[in-house]
User: Fold this.
Amino acid sequence: MKTVDASQNAVSKALRMLSLLAQSHDPMRLGDVADAMGMPKSSVHRILAILVEEGYVEPSGDGFYRPGNGLRVLAAGMEGHSGSGIEATLVALQRTLRHAVFLAVLSGDSITYTHKVDPKLAYSIAPDVGSQLPLTWSAAGKVILAYLPDGERDALIGGSNDREGLLTELAAIRSQAFATDFGEVDPALCSIAAAVLDNNSYPVAAVCVSTLVFVVTSKELAAMGAAVGEAAEEVSRRL
Assistant:
């Protein structure tokens, strides 16, 4: 007879809890999770606290919980293994624009690059898959910031040295539906990004195209906005 130790049992419960939250269209109250799991509230709360700390679950107020950014990172990464869906959309965009294409997923106060489609050139455009950057450091991060709810965005910006200037920039990004940087993060690189929104118009990720500053002008970079935006909308439908 197969035996299951306490640690295996805890992992099983955590995975079942994640599956339950991921399949729910709305945030779930602690008591509802406990009822669905057939577990005491105290035990459910302990597991949820760990999942919140690791970023796989996030509280949404008044005792409700919903899937966190950690699950979104996993979902985006797994989609890329299929050779279709998100990956196909990114590949098609790369073939159209002929520059490096990335998918960056919101991960706390940073973005995590989960996909990269490199052009077949003698050089590779940074960053690599798995790399993280603060939200305010790149076009991908800024376009996500621009679409965040006001309270969440303000909390992430905090006491930025140029808070008012950043807020003005984010308003402009949302108005034009894409963000660009031209040598701001790396003097040799430029990029353009559009937000990937979920069913609640929450920015879970960004599609980004990057190249070298001497390959395109800032005007040519901005002209890619429509294609990048269409790819971001397609990814939104596939998440």
In short: The first strand starts at residue 28 and ends at 29.
